[in-house]
Amino acid sequence: MNSLLKAKMKSNGFRLTSIDLFSGPGGLATGFKWAGILPLIAVEWTDTTAKTYARNHDAEVFELSNYRPAKNKTNKDYLNSFCVESARCVLIHGDINLVSSQLVKELLYRRFGIDCNKETVDIVSGGAPCESFSLAGTRTIGDDRDELFSNISRIARAVNSKAILFENVKGLFSKKSKEGVQGAIFQYICDTFERGGKYQLISRDPNKVLLTASDYGVPQIRERLFLISLRKDIAKVNLYEYPTPVYGQDRPHPNVTVSDAIYDLPKVESGQEADSYIYPKTFASENQEWFVKLMRGLSLPNMNSKTPDYLKDSFDSYVSMTIHKGPGHVKKKMELLKLIPPRSSMRAVYDTMIKDGTLEKVRDLFPNTIYGSRNRRLLDDQPSYTITSHCLDEMLHPYINRAITPREAARLQSFPDWYFFEGPYVQFHGSKDEDKYEQIGDAIPPLLAYALGIQFLKCLTSK
Questions:
Q1: Which of 110, 146, 151, 141 shows the shortest CA–CA distance to 129?
Q2: Each residue of 378-388: b (16+ CB within 10 Å) or e?
Q3: Assessment of whether the complete model's pTM goes beyond 0.90
Q4: How many separate domains does the chain show?
Q5: Across the chain, what does the average pLDDT equal?
Q6: Which of 86, 121, 128, 134 could form a disulfide with 148 if both were Cys (CB 3.0 to 4.6 A apart)?
C-alpha cells in the first residue's frame, strides 16, 4: 500500500478497502465509506450512472473503450496514465466481461501499491443486474445475464480478497435453470462462490441471507438477498455475522417512516422545483431528527460525528439542495391523481368505481391495464414501498397530487442530500443513459450497506 493511500486511510478513519463491481450510482460505496471501507476500484457500464458515481466519490474515470480500442489490442499508454501513485478511486467505465483480472491487479499494484501476492483488498462486492431474476421481469430461462455474477468470483479470486459480497433480488431464490429446476440458479451461484474450496459462504439459508432495509433504518420495506463469502483462512479465525435488525416493532427503535424521511422537504407541486430548504425548528421524534441530520450531512449513521469533507459537496450552510423537482404531469394524469385520496391507490379507486357503477364517467382517465403497483399513495406513518427503477410510475406523494421527486426517492433510499444524480430526469427505459429515478431505484440503500459494512469491520479487523 503506497504512502498516499495509507495517509488517506489514516486521516479519514478508513480501516478496510474494497473493489465495487456493478457499482451503480454508489449506494454501497456510500454506506461502506460511512462504515470505514474505502473503494479503490469500481466498475460500471451505464454512462450516466458512471458519471454519478465519479462525481460523488471523486473517482477518476478509466474508459475501457480507450484501453481496448479494438479486439485483442490494448493501449498501454492510456493504462500508464492511471498507473501513478494515488489514493483516488478509479472507476472503470465499460463492460465488466471485458475487464480482465490482470488489468485490476495492475491498477492495484501500480496505482495503490498493493501486491496481491502479499496483501490485498479486503472485500470484492457486486450486485449483478437483476432483470432476469426479478419477479416483476420476464425471468427468461437461460438469460445471458444470469452469468454476469461470475465476474465477482473471478476478480475476487484473482486479487485474493478476504471477503466477497453479492447482492440481488428475492426472485433469485425461485429462478429456474435451463432444465426447469426451480431454485437451481440460486444454488448454482452459491456453488460458484465456493468452487475450488478457497471461499466459504456464511450461509445459504434464504431466511438468513434475505435482509429487509427497514430493519436497519431505511424508510423503505425493501427485501434483498446478500451472499457473503470469506476466504477459508479468515473464516477459521472469525466468521461474519449478519447485522441484527434494530428498527421495527419490539426492537430498540421504531421504523423510520415516510414522514420521518421527507417531511422537512419543501412541498413542491407538480412541475415546481425547490433548490433550497431551511432546517426544522422541531422534530416529531428522535427517529426523525436522526434521519434528517444524516440526510443533510450533519452526522454519520452512528450519530457521533459530522460528515467528513471527502463525502461533502459544499454543504457547509446546509441550505442548498438538488433534484427536488415535482414531475410535470399532463392534464389527464392530474385529473386521475385527484381521484386518489390519501392512503389509497389507482387500483383501489378503480375497483371501487366498478362496484358502485361510477367508472364509466372517468374511464378515459385510467390506463387500459391497471397494475396494482402503479400510482399508489405512500403511507406517511409507515416505511415506503420498495423503491424500484419504475418508482416514478409507482409512487405518489402521501397527499400532494404528483409522483415523488427524485430527491424524495433518494431520501427513501437513504441517500444523503449532498448526493447528486447525473443524467435526465426521465428517460425511456432500456436506454444506456439511465435517468435519475432508475439510478436511485436500482441502488443499494446506503444505510443497509452501512449495517453490512460495520459487520465486515468487526469480522476482518478483530484479532
A1: 146
A2: bbbebbbbbbb
A3: yes
A4: 1
A5: 91
A6: 128
